Amino acid sequence: MDFLIVKVPKGTRDIIGPEAQAFSDLERVARYVFSLFHFLEIRTPLFEAVELFSRSLGETSDVVEKEMFTFTDRGERTYALRPEGTAGVVRSFIENSLFAKGGLNRFFYMGPMFRAERPQAGRFRQFWQIGSECFGSPEPSLDADTVLMVAQIFDAYGVHPFSIHVNSLGCDQCRPVYRDALLKYLKSRESGLSEESRRRMAKNPLRVLDSKVDGPKLADAPAMKAYLCADCQAHHAAFLKLVKKARLPIEENPRLVRGLDYYTRTVFEFVSPDLGAQSALAAGGRYDNLVELLEGPATPAVGFALGMDRAVLVRLKKEPAPFFLTNQPNLTAMVIPLFKEALEESFLLAQELRKGGIAVPPVMANKKLKNQLSLASEMGAAWALLIGEDELQRGSVTIKNLKTREQSTMSLAQAISFITASHPLKADA
Ligand code: HAM
User: How many helices (H) does the chain have, and how many strands (E)?
Assistant: First the structure.
């Protein structure tokens, strides 16, 4: 609208109606899958001290170098809107001594993240992630579990197809050896590299492989796989065996280095052919040093985050699937007070029906019966429930089947169980 002076900020948008519903559906599917895997929820602040992110994600990561929204709190401290969820969860894990109980600590989260990126299809400045973090074990089966869980969320939500790119970034023992070999190679190519890559080379040469401009020119660069130490090799092989056994569409990708610095060993990315340039649906990996780096006790960890905006984008391109039918109330009933005094009783009846999983449009008084009935058929309602003077006196309701036009009168309690029992999902059960 041209007359609007104040518009939605660049890179953000309003999510309305069917798209908002698709977000909620994805959240519900994810919660269900997380419960199958016994994860607990965690909610951390939307902003944190800026150094939490610079220390965790790495000074040379794009996110820290140029994408954080920062602000000063009354001139005292600099904060950043969270660009991702892992750093905050790790801070909370340490600050709340969640490690004290020992064993595995597993959390999931969902919510908005903020990055001042150049907006394009599937890339926003405020975007939503669903993610998980699992603390307390270096076992490759937990890396595999994470990948399995993400795949199950996409399967249940109806995001198909996808492929899963995987790689190992090694550990403190073997990565420095690889880093030296890569640096030697990059130096031999230095004149052909962009200024940004030359700058990255000095600080973090692995990130040069990640460069959109130079990455493709470096096809013959040494690969981490050839440099993995015996332990990292065994870890990666065990991880691959598990995910392949689960028949996941795994592709080994030696060029996958990831944009955030905290990763060790396993890294993965879920890629969709239905997205354009921004093809990553989800990503994650192991970060065995991060808890210690942030001054917590050494604790191995692995996690992921999926981009909700992108999953929804793909989902809405597909045919409506049974998922949408089975997870939305697909039986609508209209409750109609036939005179003003019947409003409260009708309101309560509507409420009871909604608790029973039946969709009920708002109950309105002072509307003509004829108009209400045509609204009911417009909304695809199966039933109309009418409360007139007689019904109000007797504590009953008249139920009208809007298809057959048959009607009968029964008590309120009977009506509630009759309608909820006619829900197709209940009937199937
Ligand atoms: P990430 O790769 O930066 O990883 O982001 C994960 C996912 O978030 C991406 O694959 C993408 O789907 C989505 N995403 C990222 N940026 C945007 C954007 N500007 N607009 C829309 N979607 C976006 C992480 O954030 C790590 N914290 C994942 C992790 C958790 N690793 C270990 N634990």
Answer: 17, 15
Count the neighbouring beta carbons within 10 Å of the beta carbon of residue 389: 11
- Measured CA to CA, the distance from residue 15 to residue 419 in angstroms comes to 33
CA–CA distance, 247 with 253 (Å, rounded to integer): 17
Q: How many CB atoms lie within 10 A of CB 255?
A: 15
Whole-angstrom Cα distance, residue 302 to residue 84?
A: 15
What's the rounded Cα separation, in Å, for the pair 404 and 399? 12
> What pTM was computed for the model?
0.85
Proportion of the chain above pLDDT 70, given as a percent: 95
Nearest CA to ligand 1 atom 23: 307
Distance 269 CA to ligand 1 centre (A): 10
Residue 424 in this model has a pLDDT that exceeds 70: no
d(CA 286, CA 260): 12
Residue 75 has pLDDT above 90, yes or no: no
Nearest CA to ligand 1 atom 33: 303
Mean pLDDT, rounded, for 50-63: 92
- Residue 248 CA to residue 269 CA, distance in Å, equals 13
Residues 6+ apart with CB under 8 A from 343: 337, 363, 365
Of 63, 132, 267, 310, the one to substitute when testing ligand 1's pocket (max ligand atoms within 8 A of C-beta) is 310
* Each residue's pLDDT tens digit, 170-217: 999 999 999 999 999 999 999 999 998 998 888 889 888 878 788 888
Q: Quick one: which of 68, 62, 32, 35 has its CA closest to 50?
A: 68
Q: Answer whether 56's CB lies under 8 Å from 68's CB.
A: no
Lining residues, ligand 1, CB within 6 Å = 84-86, 115, 117, 122-124, 127, 129, 131, 133, 260, 280-285, 303-307, 309-310
